Amino acid sequence: MGRSPIFYLDRLPAAAGHIASVAGYPIGAPLTRSALRAICIDPAVTPLAKYACIMAWGGQRFGNFVKSCRAPALAPLIRALLASTNNRQIDFAPTQAAAALIPGLGISFYTKLLFFLRPVQDAYILDQWTAKSILLLQFPPVIRLGPLGYEGFARAHPATTPAEYECFCKAVEGLRGPLWPVGPPPTGEQVEMAMFDKPGGFWRGFVKSNFKHPVAGKLLVNGGESLTQAHDYRCGLLVIRRIDPPRLFVIGIHGSCCHWSSDDCYRLLLARLRELLAQHKLPITLVLPLGPCPQWFTDALQALGITVETSEVESKNPSAGAGTDDDDKELFDPIGVTRRACQQDLEFITNLAQAFDRFGPYVKVFLDMLHGNRAALQHQGVIGEVELFIHEDDAGQRTGFVAVEWKNGGIGDIHGVAVDERHRRKGVANHLLDHVEQLARQRGTMKLECITAETENGPGLNCFTNWGFQNLGFVGNYPNGQRAVKLRHTL
Fold first, then answer.
1. 156-188 b/e with 16+ CB inside 10 Å = b?
2. Pair 164, 145: CB distance under 8 Å
3. Contact 90/162 with Cβ under 8 angstroms?
4. Are the CB atoms for 57 and 34 separated by under 8 Å?
5. Which of 228, 231, 234, 423 is 20 to 30 Å from 441 at the Cα level?
6. What's the whole-model pTM score?
7. How far is CA 476 from CA 45, 117, 481, 488, in A?
8. Could you give the CA distance from residue 217 to residue 110 in angstroms, rounded to a whole number?
9. Nearest one of 119, 78, 83 to 95, comparing CA atoms
10. How far is CA 343 from the centre of its chain?
């Protein structure tokens, strides 16, 4: 998972020595868990190189990684964990205290250090996926989540205590039997990996659906108990019990075999509601997507005494642009693929590029790049070789594009990075920039530069600086008058 370690190792002070210490390991590609563990137990690998590989595996933002490496508390923490003879609960407290002094090292990242650096691998990673999974699989809750955020984000609480962390680890180990009733018993790590799942996996989709829905998410974060069965979820239902006051919430989502315009769907739902009433003997609130219900269904609910509410899951990103997450939001899904743009991408590029037109006539620039219209580009001051790349997710959906001009003098000029609003906050912009950096290294290009708005595109500016660009300051105004700054990243 994550990114290639070489991109992180290159950013370490005295990088050559650290890179030499991992010679022989596959640092040019994302590491597997087993390869990362081999690096972490190898005494020939420097402590900072081990840290860089763990952060690459976890997908830490480059800007936060560089800041964390400058923290005086980092090196002692790494050495202490490598030499630890303590149990995981004892190690948690000093690790948490040290991480508070290290920028960008929230609970989802310092528990990765606990897992990979300690001699005994029984301190499990507590990120949003494992934290949410435990809340869905174990009741009463053994850990706390932070506040519910946009799109259902909720990380493990930053103030998690050593006792709570120990309860989490024991809960992970306690699932070995229930999740694997037959065959050889799994390790705690295998349970953790099953809870983490993979984007597109059934369990990951189930976890996302529970917390993304505003009603379900709030109930779960505040101590609700999930009673959803696999057949419920496939039919588009979430079932959650609130403890105080006792009530059952049955929440309609878009399931694989549920269409809220179909009478058959409502008949199946009514049968399930009657079953839940008989089983739990609790008042039920039914939460359905916006839209009219059949009158016969409404009459049946009234006869059963079931309360009905409607809810619309938020679909618009409240903040435009990319790069607004901190690392602990753990929205770094598998990377998908980046490919060269083709004529079939015309509509996608045109739609995304319209966001740039508030600064000037940039749609035409990107389309001239796509069509290879050299004369028009030169007229607009784009003289070097140009390339457009499209990012696609694992499902083959286009998620964003990047445009780069390779100039004389060893400079790669990034003309724009755009991400579809439905795919923002997932690491797409970072992956596009990673791809450009990899191409630059192959070409011997040692500098990447770009121009962005000083104040009118805060998320975009943050995306570039978090990735590793340095803000060189004001360079002039866009055609439409906005102040522009120049950014540079030296390889």
1. bbeebebebbbbbbebbbbbeeeeeeeeeebeb
2. no
3. yes
4. no
5. 423
6. 0.68
7. 46, 48, 9, 16
8. 25
9. 78
10. 30
